Amino acid sequence: MGADGSSVFAPGWTALTRFLAEIGGSVSADGSPDVLVGVLRGGMIPAVQLAHLLGVRIVRALEVTHTRADGINSPKMPRPVVANEGSLGDVSGMDVLIIDDVVGSGLTIDACRDLVAGARPARLRAAALTVNAVNWQMSHEAEPREELDYIGHVYQGWVIFPWELQ
User: Fold this and answer.
1) Beta bridge partners of 98
2) Could you tell me if 160 and 147 are in contact, meaning their C-beta atoms sit under 8 angstroms apart?
3) Phi and psi (nearest 5°) for 64?
4) I need a surface site. Which of 2, 8, 52, 55 has the fewest CB within 10 A?
5) Where are the alpha helices (DSSP H) in the chain?
6) For residue 124, what pLDDT is reported?
7) What are the phi and psi torsion angles at 12 (to 5°)?
8) How do 150-155 and 95-103 pair as beta strands?
């Protein structure tokens, strides 16, 4: 439990590997992308792992910040901030898959989708290793699976990843 009584999900590497394998299988069935775009910071870890699973050599990064800190239920900025839009590179005419470690309100992944869509890819898909359904439900009427192409796991609360533990 978080300090405020909220639920916390701390999947281990085994669970995360399983989530990524499920995402990878679904992505493969839909056609492997040309490029994976990981959302910095946490989304880069699943992006690289997924790239290896799919045999995708091109991995890009987008630095998008929405929370003010790393703690449980950290306050958010009003809108996600994109830093260094140029890190996306040229994705015009490519099949692009964006992946983040966790999607809560969906604003960060939306900001990434908007930026990538402006670069005129041939196809654009979005994946989340996990979804914080509590935050999602506060800002969406539709279920996460209706708005995200691939989801590894949905949890009702904050998610802490192994790479965040010290």
Assistant:
1) 37, 126
2) no
3) -130, 125
4) 55
5) 13-30, 44-54, 107-117, 133-139, 144-147
6) 98
7) -85, 180
8) unpaired
Q: What is the DSSP string of 35-60?
A: EEEEEETTTHHHHHHHHHHHT--EEE
Amino acid at 56: V
Q: What is the pLDDT of residues 20-44, one digit of tens each?
A: 999 999 999 999 999 999 998 789 9
Tell me the backbone φ, ψ of residue 26, rounded to 5 degrees: -65, -40
Question: What are the tens digits of pLDDT across the range 144-157?
Answer: 999 999 999 999 88
Structure tokens at 7: 């639920």
Note the pLDDT of residue 42. Answer: 84
How is residue 67 written in tokens?
């929370």
Residues facing residue 126 across a β-bridge: 98
Peptide bond into 79 cis (omega under 30): no
Tokens for 59, please give them: 């991995």
Annotation: CATH topology of 8-161: Rossmann fold (3.40.50)
Letter for the amino acid at 138? M
Give the pLDDT confidence score for residue 4 in this predicted structure: 44
User: Encoding tokens for residue 166?
Assistant: 């010290």
Res 67 pLDDT > 90: no
